Amino acid sequence: MLRNSETRFGLVTIVLHWTIGLLILGLLLLGFIMRRTGIDPALQFALYQWHKSFGFAALGLALIRAIWWLVERTPSPPASVSPLERKAARLTHDTLIVLAIVVPFAGWAVASASTLNIPSFFFNMIVIPHLPLARSETSENFWTFAHALLAYVTLALVAIHAAAALFHHFKRGDEVLTRMLRPGVRPVGAGSGGTSARKRDDAAVERK
Amino acid sequence: MTVTINSAVKATVYIAFIFSTSAANAQAPALADAAGSYRIASSSSIRFSVGQVGGGGGIAGRFAKFSGGFRIDGGNIERSSVEFTLYPESVRASERRVEDFLRSSAVFDAANFQTVTFRSTRVRQTGPATATIEGALTARGKTRKERFAVTLIDWNRRSISFTIRGSIRRSPYGMDVGTPIYSNVVEFDMRIIGQRR
Ligand code: HEM
Ligand code: HEM
Question: Which of A153, A202, B48, B109 would you label with A93, given CA atoms 20 to 30 Å apart?
């Protein structure tokens, strides 16, 4: 149940996938909003700090996921998936795993290189030290650009990735999406699709 | 020739006078001798700092524009008084972004509240050259009783200088943005130079 099998994702993979996925989408939205001008400055300051705290949470989980992904087997794709699609999926997944680490690192670099030198006080609990980068305007601008670019590249890739998942579910009717929603040992019949699509991770957790 | 002798005599008399006053007052300059009315000179400095979590850096700044005056009552130091006005628009910090933030609605809200004022209500002498001043501090439309510690540094016939230090909690003034990353306590460190009126 916890581990992946030859054809199914285990609970660990599923919970990590959806938790990280939600965090990343939330951070993209938060990052976009907090950068807009005309926002109340006190609120903006708070949003930046929330962004950093949730960003670090995402980084921690992404590192755990990467390790898990390296040590755990990856279920082979359903038979309905063509070799080309397999290649594309593999490439997308590998890139997403790397981006989920690189994007928050670049964000951490922004906070570290910033001449503002604002501490990262993780959920007002512990201070996370800055990366050993020289503080300068040039360096800060570079990392801001890199962080934003990588973040929006991630968004684009996630959109393709999610679209592919929905395509498999609704057009192909295969188990590509459903097997990321509920852990299991045996393949679910092709007919089980439809209703489970909207339940996503809640369903996955509740069904143990 | 007569001129030189005359000035030498004058100098001797003057030195003797200094010795006698300093002997009478022990080491520290005494506040009572500085009685008079003063205007706060623009050569004064009004600095502040706010600590940050984990130590290091924090926010440090100063006000470039301020005004005010004080009166030292020779007969009774405790009847002396101070009032000063700071203009938050003139705040200076390490960089423009910090200054803009301090002026913004998050901190001083300089657009709606052009001044921060202090008016003393009570002065207590605590030593030959020290006193505490209690008074009403008004910022962002809120007035509260605050206390500052004053140390007399130096004076002559025309001017007088003090350090004034105080720790002010900013949350009661609606300026608690950034806590607890940045301390709630603002440390004021002022060097006030008064020009006799
Ligand atoms: C997966 C995690 C993260 C995602 C998806 C993400 C996403 C974003 C996005 C979309 C922006 C706005 C870019 C723009 O429109 O200019 C942004 C800005 C920012 N992010 Fe992140 N972020 C993540 C993690 C982090 C972390 C861990 C930190 C710091 C510890 C961080 C610090 C920042 C900062 C400081 C900015 C503002 C840059 C500036 O205003 O100069 N981010 N982030
Ligand atoms: C929000 C919409 C998302 C949907 C609908 C979605 C859907 C899916 C599905 C259905 C799978 C399983 C593919 C299969 O059966 O082989 C999957 C795998 C994967 N997803 Fe997502 N995902 C989303 C967001 C994300 C995000 C934001 C990331 C990371 C940044 C991500 C990274 C991955 C990775 C790395 C895999 C491969 C898992 C493994 O092989 O262990 N996904 N996703």
Answer: A202
Which pTM was predicted? 0.86
**Is residue B17 situated within a structural domain?**
no
How much is the pLDDT for A201? 38
Has residue B20 been placed in a domain? Answer: no
- Is B26 part of any domain? no
The overall average pLDDT reported for chain A is 90
Indicate yes or no: CB of A119 within 8 angstroms of CB of B181.
yes
Q: Decide if pLDDT at A62 tops 90.
A: yes
Instruction: Please report whether residue B8 resides in a domain.
Output: no
Domain region containing B136: 31-196
Atom of ligand 1 nearest to the CA of A34: 12
The answer, yes or no, to whether ipTM is higher than 0.90 is no
A111 lines ligand 2 (CB under 6 A): no
